[in-house]
Amino acid sequence: MQSLRIFIKIIAMFTLFIYAQQNVDIANNANDQDADDLNLVTVHAEDAHLPSILAILAKESGYNIVTDPNVNRQEKISIHLGHSGANPIDVPKFADWGVDAVTHMYDALPTYPPDDTGVHVLSLTDALIAETRIALGVICDGIHVHPQLVELLSHLPTDRVFLETDSVKGAGSPVPVKFEFFPGRWCTVEKGKASTYNGLLAGSSLTSIEALQNYYKFSKKTLSQVAIAASLVPARVIGLENIMGSIEKNKLADFILLQKDNLEISETYIAGKSVYKSE
Predict the structure, then answer these.
(1) Which of 123, 176, 195, 257 is the Cys-Cys partner for 266 at CB 3.0 to 4.6 Å?
(2) Does the pTM exceed 0.70?
């Protein structure tokens, strides 16, 4: 119970991100998807029990929280564990309750010092890797997660890993950007890193294409093996794999073309029309 309270307190501090898809007529509105179709629900529940949080979310958002694999994914919401001090033993229980993904795998997820038995102490990240019902989001900038750990994750089934940026204002800028991200706290963003005045990480400067390039480099897998982490897996996590995430009939024709030598973006298509070409 104490570990669950820690888990809930961490959720309260960093919020529980719930990605909920509105009920839309896909056939009639597939090309009209916009930010309004994804809702972000924030729950402050420091003293609540996790099942109670799920009940609150279901009531406030109007979406079902279910673990039955036979239920249409679009009728679900995605619940992410992140920056948590939960007891590793409880991870299967969290999956039973509906947690289906991790935001920022390895970041602020504690490890434990070795004991005097010589036996490896089960960590939270160990338990999350072992739980096949939970997808793992990774900030693949080479800073938040060590490249060798990224390579370790790449050996999991391809539907287990998705790429995140955690990027903040100024990401992608060719020159350093400084801004106040919290009253009295300033952040400097430059290529490769976003940090506070005292050197602490404050999000990242990572772009999505850089995340893909890094994952390809760190994992040593083929492009077809790693590209799914930036396309179909995140689409599945938010319940939109029926309209995006892969190039198939009746899906949105949004995709990019990459240069073969460096994986830089060569051309971008939105709704089947070219909207960007590199020089």
Answers:
(1) 257
(2) yes
